[in-house]
Amino acid sequence: MPSNATSPVQRPIRSMLFVPADSERKLEKSSNLQADALVFDLEDSVLPARKPVARDMLKAFLPTYAGSGQPWVRVNDLESGELLNDLAAIVPLAPAGIVLPKIRGPEDLDLVGHWLDMAECMAGIEQGSTRIIAVATETPEAVLRMADLIKARRPRLLGLIWGAEDLSSAIGADDPRTATGAWRQTYEYARIQALLAAHALGIQAIDTVYVDFRNPQGCEANCRDASYDGFTGKVAIHPSQVEIINTAFSPSAEQIEYARRVVAAFEQGEGAVSLDGKMLDIPHLKSARKVLSHLS
Ligand code: COA
Ligand code: MG
């Protein structure tokens, strides 16, 4: 269940850069980028006719990938007719995990989890080693059923991403943003549901893409809001967004220093302590540990 005051906190993925898997140039470039995770995409950035080509290119590329970021693969969704082919192609190459789009509810995670069990077994790789990050708000069912998702902890599930564009398309709506760039209510609702579900499960909460990739100030402000609200990382679509995201989702030197002092204040073994004239209890200790997890 969710981490408690004594369990270690895993270092979060701050930036997840999507790389279309059928683009030779972008694949090549990915080994030199500083994203915490690269998400090689077989889904929405690849045209239907190019799916087999993208799979073949990724099969050839993944064993040569030498970047510092964790290699992930966004596979196609359960209704696409492509997912089994995707899993058969990429699981034997042992990526860090799959990004599973357009889930409709927890059953989708269980089914894909079983398929991963089988694919790992056939490939002779460790059972459970392929993690899942689910895109949790791309279907109306998934948004309405978010409470079902938190009923059970699934060890493969590392995080939730929320997204607005596919939800908007699924409900026949127009631009998910208002004229000022704020999310319209349906998407703000979905965003909050995914954020709370991720934290209820003790897993990572990953913010959606900032599409205006030639606007670094806008991206920075957008990251700041997401980090303030409790998201632990963010999707990137262009290399120029990676550093902005990494910085926004890293604690500042002052935050680290303060977190160290908070942890030190609890070392006498008391549950409530005082620091700088303020009362601190376990939630402060947990927050401080989360800040320090960025250093591990
Ligand atoms: N991954 C790796 N490299 C990328 C990249 C990415 N996502 N996006 C751009 N690059 C590379 C380009 O290939 C180019 O390098 P090159 O000159 O050596 O070829 C360099 O970065 C600069 O790119 P730029 O010309 O500014 O962008 P573009 O017009 O070629 O591409 C996008 C713009 C949006 C099409 C591109 O960034 C992209 O494909 N993003 C990912 C889209 C995606 O995966 N969407 C689905 C998830 S939401
Ligand atoms: Mg999509």
Q: Report the strand count.
A: 10
- End-to-end separation in angstroms reads 22 Å
Helix-strand category: alpha/beta
Number of helices: 12
CATH top level of the largest domain?
Alpha Beta
Q: What Rg do the Cα atoms give?
A: 20 Å
In helices, the fraction of residues equals 40-55%
Q: Let me know the average pLDDT.
A: 95
Present as ligands are: coenzyme A, magnesium ion
Describe the protein's architecture and organization:
The chain is of the alpha/beta class and 296 residues long. It has two domains: 15-249, Phosphoenolpyruvate-binding domains (TIM Barrel, Alpha-Beta Barrel), CATH 3.20.20; 251-291, no CATH class. The chain contains twelve helices and ten strands. The strands form two sheets. The protein has an eight-stranded parallel β-barrel, surrounded by four helices. A two-stranded antiparallel sheet has the order 9-10. α2 (51-61) runs parallel beside α3 (83-90) and α11 packs across α12 (282-293). The protein starts with 14 loop residues before the first strand and ends with a helix. The structure holds coenzyme A (COA) and magnesium ion. Coenzyme A is lined by residues 17-20, 25-26, 29-30, 41, 44-45, 209, 213, 237-239.
Salient structural properties:
disordered N terminus, 41% helix, 10 strands, TIM Barrel, two-stranded antiparallel sheet, binds coenzyme A, 15% strand, 296 residues, alpha/beta, binds magnesium ion
